[in-house]
Amino acid sequence: MDMQRQNPLTAIMSSDHKGIFLGGALLVILFSAGAFLVEGFASSNNIRSILLLAAFLGLAALGQTMVALVGGLDLSIPFVIGASNILLAYLFGTGIPAVFCILIIAVMGLGIGLLNAVLSYRLQGQALIVTLGVGFAVVGAAQIFTTLGSQYSGTVFSEVPKWFATIASINGKTLGLPIPPVVIIWALISGLVVFATNRMRRGREIYAIGGNRTAAARLRISEFRVWLLTYGVSGLMASITGMLLLGFSGGGFAGVGDPYLFTTVAAVVVGGTSLLGGSGGYGATVIGVLVLQVLTSLLVGLGLNYAAQQTVFGLLILPMVAIYARTPHIRMQI
Amino acid sequence: MTQILHHLRGQFSHLIVPAGLVAVLLLICAFRSPQLFSAVGAAGAILVSAPLILAAMAITPIAMAGRGGVDLSIGPAIGFINVTIVTWLTSWGFESPVAVFVFAIVVGCIWQILLASMIVFVRVSPIIVSLAGFMILSGVNLVILPRPGGLAPDWLSDWGYGTELFSPVLFVLIAAFVLWFLFQRTAMFQHIRLMGADEKTAYTVGININVVRFAAHLSAGVLTGLAAVCLTGLIGSGDPSQGNTLTLQAITALVLGGTSLAGGRGGVVGSILGAIAMYLIFVVLSSFDFGAISGFMTQMSYGLILVLSLLLTLVATRPKPAAV
To answer: How far is A67 from chain B (nearest CA, A)?
Structure first.
């Protein structure tokens, strides 16, 4: 459109990656502001805690990104996180070898994701509500299961294996480096996902379905299989996040997932993935996650409480979306 | 005659599932908790379920208006009106019923106009606008009133006893129904349905879709205000987080009521039935002694019934080959 005046700025603004540029710029600005305004902001301790919390949010938001790429939303993520969290704590208390416990929960998470996929594929356009309903049912069932025969409702106490707790603890070390292992895991998974979605056939199919499902069907891409893949990944990643959060906190609590209901969507949106499907990607979400965590840390450093942070998050989403994900005018859609 | 029947069936097919659900639940209630059918029991039921009924009504026109619009901010918006009534309005000395009602409705409408402006003029998709609205208002509510407290005006607190069947809450509900049915007879309402079903067609036939979207949000704003007044009457004080739980409940009620989030299909009667069904589920479950797990039972049942009713609605309203 703007062929006449193609200066570098308009080139960036009209490229597919403007979300990444804008997010990156925002990240640098926020970080500099933090380093300038808050004492100890740029200290290695603070950076480590930002990265640790970003890893949890990033893992939880991976599935949300995949689902958003096909134009859906997965509201079951916080509930799967909470259910995995207390169920793993419960299983650790039963004496089953820890590795099996983790496998059982991971399979459960994947199963819930696949169930979401089947249901929301059948009920086109209602994915939001299907996942919400499945989430309610899952967390309710998990709490009933763990509460039966226990006097604490909603919380499960048990011994978390030490090696498991180190993965997600702030003082955890990776091969002697002072970085919690979960951050490294997140970085590896991010690299893998970005590669898979950009370079592999299965990954490109996600974009094809999100961009234009009729065209994708003509290319003989199975929409159902893409649905299974995205929602399956979402359920699996949510259960992994829930398990890692158990290692982080040490006690099982179903409400641990609650903040992730809206923050995963916020991370996806701030990063620059359109909720309408087809554009964006996990690389953008990683930037979105970092922006949100650096911003949180900055706001905490400035003495703002959780309530004020939420307001700022909300105020941040609208301009970000207004910059890069405006729906075309109705005249253009006809 | 058969054509009329066919037409009626098309109009009301989305009500089959919620009406059946309410009937079954009422039958169970007749055995499990017959006190619901006494005057006092019914009065309590109306009082407790009124905020949810009105909230579910409020998000109906927005969902019908299409673009996947589901107002996530409804709960915090109700909470905002609730906390501002007990903090600002009482400190300004405006405690009369007229002042409270006018304030609640005006604030509800202003909020909805803000949302609609973002959707219409900035062209951000409705779900993101209402998500941002949820986060902004739930934060703001906690800043205005950090913890539950404050006192509602005396006349409003008195609602909370809920012993009389013909209580003010019932009249508010009736007023809301009457207003809605008047609104339903207008051309504007048909335009909302048409826009929700197919926005491009609505635009091409010359409907001013921006005005229609504002109208959908304004009608939601009025109902939001009424819901907030009923909530304030129910709890008799201010609570910054009570409203937030209403969002998910209202959406559940909306979907139980057969309104499609894809737009164009559904109606407020369904949402009312959905909200009543949710209250009845709660009553039935509390009649069993689940002890520590009763809250979890309610949550799980809401989830299961939500998914099941979606599947049932799919079967009941599956588009059939046109008979005519």
So the answer is: 15
